Structures are given as structure tokens and as C-alpha cells.
Amino acid sequence: MKFFIDKEVFRVLPDYCVGVVVVSEFDNANKVDEIAKMLDEAAVEFSEKVQGINLKEDSRIEPYRNSFRLLNINPNKFMCSIEALAKRVQKKPELPHINTLVDLGNAVSLKNFVPIGVHNVDKFEGNSMGVRFFEKGDHFLPMGGTEMEEPDEKELLYVSGNTVKTRRWTWRQSEDGKISEDTRNVVIVIDGFRGVNDDNVREAMDELRGLFKEMFGMSTITGMVDSENNVFEW
């Protein structure tokens, strides 16, 4: 299995990096009260910190908004996932409990102020997933949707084969990428920037690794992908 960032991406986003956490044979049908409580507490704490703040001008959000502009994506219309999550919690200090993996990802995302995506490894095509620009044949099924969409030309995507997992980089995840109680093998990705917030990315990776070890007795595989090392294999 491998996760990659196409080298062309670094022509536009030279400092882009992704932290990767691989989790195998996880029982996601098991509801964990401690994880649900962690998410509730993270939402309340985060909400308190961002009250009265214009998130568009927040220094932690700004790098993502600037990158969206470099990618010719309007950040006001298509918000980065962490900004969308932040705005939601800013309005109301709570998030729904979906399942253990999703709740855990949301909690750690809020605590470290970074975008986190959880992807089902068992749905990978060709044993790989990565970030690249649109190619002919790419298709996307919106979450809860019934009709396929074709992304825009030159759009930055999370893809496996020609199946788009996330459109407009970190904007919207697909129906194909939905994490359910039956999901057992995942790769958790954390988007950031070298020299800007890669410390937050590493802290989120370390926190996830520690939580899986302490709470579930599970080992994880972790790594960082960037312009110097654009492929991570496990």
C-alpha cells in the first residue's frame, strides 16, 4: 500500500506536507464512551477559544485559505475542512457522534487545528491513494448523492485510481470515502505546511498514535510525506 503526493503539486504548494497514520484491523463497530466524551470536550474547549474571532483572518486558517487561492479555489465558497469544522463549532459547541474513527479524527482535528481525513484502505484502487491534479476519467460521488460528478480541470484532489475521495483538496469527502461501523482498515491523513504548522501535524500524529496504543492496545504505522519524500509505503 502507498500514499503519495504527485510532484506537480509542489510546483504550486512547495511547503505542502501530509502526516499519515495507518490503522489496521480496528473494530469500528465498538462504541467507546471515552472517545465520545473526548469529542464533546474538544468541541466545548475549541468553541471557547474561537469566540469573537474572525476565522477567515485567523493565522492558523490563513495558510489553507491562501493555498486555496493559489489553487484557484474560492476559499469563501469552498472552505478547507478545518475552517468548516471550526465555524460549525464556533456557532454551536458540539458535533454529532458518528462512529469511533470519525469522532476520534474530529476531536484530534479540533485539538490541533489541522484538517484530518479518514480513508478506508479496503476501497483503494491499485493499492494506493494520493493527492494530485485532475485527470480525465476522474469521478466523484458526493456524500449522500446518487449522481457522479466530474471535477474541474486542474482541480487538486485526493484520489485512488480515478475515484475521487475528496474534491477541491480538503473540501468535501465522497460517498465512497464514508467511514462506517464496518470499516476496519484506514489511513488517517493530516494536511499542513512545512515551516508553518508541521509541528501541529506531528503533534496530531503523535496523539493519534498514543490514543490507539493506550486505549486499544494497537500499534500504528506513521510517516510524513512532503516534497523531499513524496511517497509513503507500508
User: Runs with pLDDT <50, length 5+?
Assistant: none
Distance between the termini: 6 Å
Order of helix and strand elements from N to C terminus = EHEHHHHEEEEEEHEE
Q: What is the global morphology? A: globular
CATH architecture descriptor name: 3-Layer(bba) Sandwich
Number of helices: 6
The helix content is 25-40%
Task: Round the Cα radius of gyration to an integer and report it.
Answer: 17 Å
Q: What is the CATH third-level topology name?
A: Phenylalanyl-tRNA Synthetase, Chain B, domain 3
Please tally the β strands and state the result.
10
How would a crystallographer describe the biggest sheet?
6 strands, mixed
Proportion of residues in β-strands: 15-25%
The whole-number mean of residue pLDDT values reads: 96
How many domains, in number, for the residues?
1
InterPro entries: B3/B4_tRNA-bd, Phe-tRNA_synthase-like_B3/B4
Organism: Peptacetobacter hominis
GO molecular function: phenylalanine-tRNA ligase activity; RNA binding
Protein name: B3/B4 tRNA-binding domain-containing protein
